[in-house]
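Morning!

As promised:
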Amino acid sequence: MLAAVMFSIGLYGLATQRNGVKLMMCVELMLNSANINLVAFSAYQPNVSGQVFALFSIALAAAEAGIGLAILITLYRLYGTIDLDNINALRW
Amino acid sequence: MDLGHYAPLGAEALLTAVSLLVVLVGLFTKGRSSLPGYLSLAALIVAMWMVLTAQTGTVFFYDSLRVDGFSQFFKAVFILVSLLVVIASLTRYNGRPGGDEYFALLLMATVGMMVVASAIDLVSLFIGFELASLSTYAMAGFDRTKKNLEAAMKYFLYGAASSAFMLFGFSMLYGMTGSTRIADIAGASLAAFNPAILIALIFVVVGFAFKMALVPFHMWAPDTYEGAPALVSALLAAGSKKMGFAAAFRVILIALLALKLEWYMAFAILAAVTMTIGNLVACWQNNVRRILAYSSIAQAGYISIAFVVLGVASEGMTGPNNLPLDQYALAGGLLLVLGHAIMKTGAFISTAQVASIAKNTEDPDDISNYAGLGRRAPITAFCMTIFMFALAGIPPTAGYFGKFVVFGSAIYGGLVWLAVLAILNSALSLYYYLRIISYMYLREPAGPKISESKGYVLSLLLALIATFWIGVLPDGFFNWAMQAAAALLP
């Protein structure tokens, strides 16, 4: 339940926020809700593969945050802002 | 420890080692050596040979990777795409500062895709997915222009959200069935069906659909393909998108055979909407890379027809020559994947060539820059024309053959409406392909004749040969795809 609520908060934030860092925090929230799920479920299972999976995904989430922040920093240097509403060179 | 046992995974090991070596070379030569490019090229050629000759049917690392016909088919596609991109990148990135990182990331992305193709466990699937995604996020912003970074940011946010969806779905699948192995999940859901499995599955499909750029999860694709460096767009459209299909084929088919009737209609609607919207929106684009992006969304729709047919195909249904219908449909999907990967890589490399000579620097991919390309850069224009026809599905090219098998399987499966819609869509797509071609040959040149750079020309010609080869002599490829399909189906 906690995980589902966390996932929904992250998704809601992703849809409403326009600030790059906040968006990344929302994505992290979604990823971590899945981790909670994995660990919680593995308590009811005879094996620990859920916990192993959670460890892997924590490492991957960290790498993902690293790349995301790197992109944000270069973006900030070029545009002088991380408000994604002001970054709209590409339009359909 | 017996290392010989791991020989079928040699290609992955080699590419990982070379990507690290490339970084080291770059470190000691301060990124000015032209070694990284040639090293990656050699590694990819050797890896291709290893993949094609690997002994199939073995399982590694506690049932998490399997080398079978299906995985080798996709690996060959991924390596082919990377090979074409590397050859084209030799002039653009090799020997420049940062070029070593470019090639290292490219090889890493390839390894990630190859792991996904082999994965039969959710953990290894997720890791491969993320390895490929993270490398391509970094590559999408590689030239550090404003457009690049915006494209990278959009791609990153959508990609990260999609992996969150996927991971959440995986965690629920694990919770319901107590295993992360795809085969065990299939067994458990067959034994005791639980509605929560269906919800978990929807999460997983949404995660994959982002990668495959199916409507309505396609919003990032045109922006990213337009904004990222053209050669990276080639890798994204041809490689990373096909990775989504590899994963979807594995997970959806194996794990959810039990739910057949409940998901085929959803996929039919998804496929129909995807190809129609992709083709319609492509008609009023003026940016060639955007046109290609929407056409690749439409192609994703054609490929997903294979899912639909697999959903309806029941025991004993046959296609032409009494081939099992499910195998026939899957082989068609695989052939479309192969053909589309080659044609799209070629088309994006052509746009890279044009962008490098563009007069209108405000928007280097604007269709006005293609005016008179037939006289300015004859080889590029000719190859682009062939790729356009091939994407539209004109025989005798790779595009025609894949479409023929997939649409045919839809008719054999009783889905005539879907096949008719797909054929009408192909006709519609001719409009925007012909528009590009008419710009290239019927307009006055927008500038003087230019010398085409060798790397681009070489990879364009290779892609051209492959396109015709599959189109003219399809038998061998068809048998290969049938074997791959047989390896996947139970």
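Residues 244 and 406 of chain B are 18 Å apart (CA to CA).

Hope this helps with the figure draft.
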